[in-house]
Amino acid sequence: MSELYCIRHGQASFGSENYDVLSPAGITQSGLLAARLFQSGARFDAIFTGTLERQRYSARAFMDYYAARGSHMPEPVILPGLDEYDSRSVLTTLIPGMVSEDPALKADVDALFTSRKSFQRVFERAMLRWIDGGYDSGGIESWAVFQRRVAAGLELIMTAHPSGKTVAAFTSGGTISAAVQYAIGISGADTMRLCWQIVNSSVTRFKYSAGRIALASFNNFSHLETGDHGALITYR
């Protein structure tokens, strides 16, 4: 049996021109996770990461910590199946219809990238609408296609490292929640609600063998719960 650590990237740069860059807090989160896992004795036979900068940089910061202590790992394999869904495109596509149906939502839309509460209200409604699939998607990646992409990525990892391996995959909250759905078969809406609970730099672990995968633990962020690191518990 092998084990897969799905690691959410560190905090990105919410509200900035380039969201995909890790914030200073995101860099610190990645280092704290590396320290915790290194001290626990976790060693990895393979590293995977999506194509996004926040995923790749989180992986690199993690690997650099290990390397500085004499524990070198293979170079990451870039796997597009680990990429997050394009939330900006989903929002851009679905918001006009949402505002048309509920004009009161416009105030939150206008404050989308300046108010976290407004963002969350709009984001949650848009994501559930996207999952429902009953609206014009405007050519963006559908929820069903996203699910299949994540499943294909997981299957590739399991095929490449089928037995007795420990693998780390640096990815995003949506991808991790879709992986949980793949393992335990929950609804799309419940999958998205799980996604909203996933902390930056948290670890969700799976065990797999012969094409079968089981959820072992979800959203562990104990490396941020000790000492004075509580302010680093972030969700965006």
Class by SSE composition: alpha/beta
CATH topology of the largest domain: Rossmann fold
Mean pLDDT: 92
**Strand ordering within the main sheet:** 3-2-4-1-5-6
* Level-2 CATH architecture of the largest domain: 3-Layer(aba) Sandwich
CATH superfamily of the largest domain: Phosphoglycerate mutase-like
Number of strands: 6
Q: Give the overall shape, derived from the CA principal axes.
A: globular
CATH structural class of the largest domain: Alpha Beta
Q: What is the helix content?
A: 40-55%
Helical run tally:
8
Rg value: 18 Å
Explain the overall architecture.
It is built from eight helices and six strands. A hairpin with a 2-residue loop joins strand 5 (203-209) and strand 6 (212-220). It has helices at residues 24-40, 53-68, 87-101, 106-110, 116-132, 143-160, 173-184, 188-195; strands at residues 2-8, 46-49, 77-78, 166-171, 203-209, 212-220. The protein has two domains: 2-84 and 144-232, Phosphoglycerate mutase-like (Rossmann fold, 3-Layer(aba) Sandwich), CATH 3.40.50; 87-132, no CATH class. The model has no long low-confidence stretch (mean pLDDT 92). A six-stranded mixed sheet has the order 3-2-4-1-5-6. The protein is 46% helix and 15% strand. The protein has 236 residues and is α/β, with parallel strands linked by helices.
